[in-house]
């Protein structure tokens, strides 16, 4: 059985979403990490190898968290992105694999020649 969130807290000052699960795990997921990891077709594409590298998301904010049934949330970002449904399973996966996924993302940015700017008030995930 997949872990289910017991609490989802939008933390605008620290620019992260804190998700606590019924298996005892808790993850702080930065807004930037969530935006560049969105499960939407805009980010993931429509099949393997069609992923679109997201750049310029260092300052993105989550404006709203909307529940979708009993299995997911939709995150409304201030850049207009709102099409990704973050299932409980996917949020848990993002938390468990955060270090590796973030390092992979930074490597892809470097390979693409993009120099990521770290906002002064927002620590990396």
UniProtKB/TrEMBL annotation:
<dbReference type="InterPro" id="IPR038492">
    <property type="entry name" value="GBBH-like_N_sf"/>
</dbReference>
<dbReference type="GO" id="GO:0016853">
    <property type="term" value="F:isomerase activity"/>
</dbReference>
<keyword id="KW-0413">Isomerase</keyword>
<dbReference type="GO" id="GO:0046872">
    <property type="term" value="F:metal ion binding"/>
</dbReference>
<feature type="domain" description="Gamma-butyrobetaine hydroxylase-like N-terminal">
    <location>
        <begin position="8"/>
        <end position="92"/>
    </location>
</feature>
<keyword id="KW-0408">Iron</keyword>
<protein>
    <submittedName>
        <fullName>1-(5-phosphoribosyl)-5-((5-phosphoribosylamino)methylideneamino)imidazole-4-carboxamide isomerase</fullName>
    </submittedName>
</protein>
<keyword id="KW-0479">Metal-binding</keyword>
<dbReference type="InterPro" id="IPR010376">
    <property type="entry name" value="GBBH-like_N"/>
</dbReference>
<dbReference type="Pfam" id="PF06155">
    <property type="entry name" value="GBBH-like_N"/>
</dbReference>
């Amino acid at each position: 059985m997949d872990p289910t969130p017991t609490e989802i807290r939008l933390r605008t000052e620290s620019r992260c979403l804190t998700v606590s699960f019924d298996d005892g795990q808790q993850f702080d997921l930065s807004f930037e990490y969530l935006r560049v990891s969105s499960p939407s077709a805009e980010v993931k594409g429509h099949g393997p190898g069609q992923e679109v590298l997201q750049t310029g998301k260092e300052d993105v904010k989550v404006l709203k968290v909307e529940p979708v049934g009993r299995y997911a949330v939709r995150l409304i970002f201030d850049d207009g992105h709102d099409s990704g449904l973050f299932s409980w399973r996917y949020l848990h996966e993002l938390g468990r694999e955060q270090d590796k996924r973030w390092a992979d993302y930074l490597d892809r940015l470097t390979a693409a020649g993009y120099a990521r700017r770290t906002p002064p008030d927002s620590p990396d995930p």
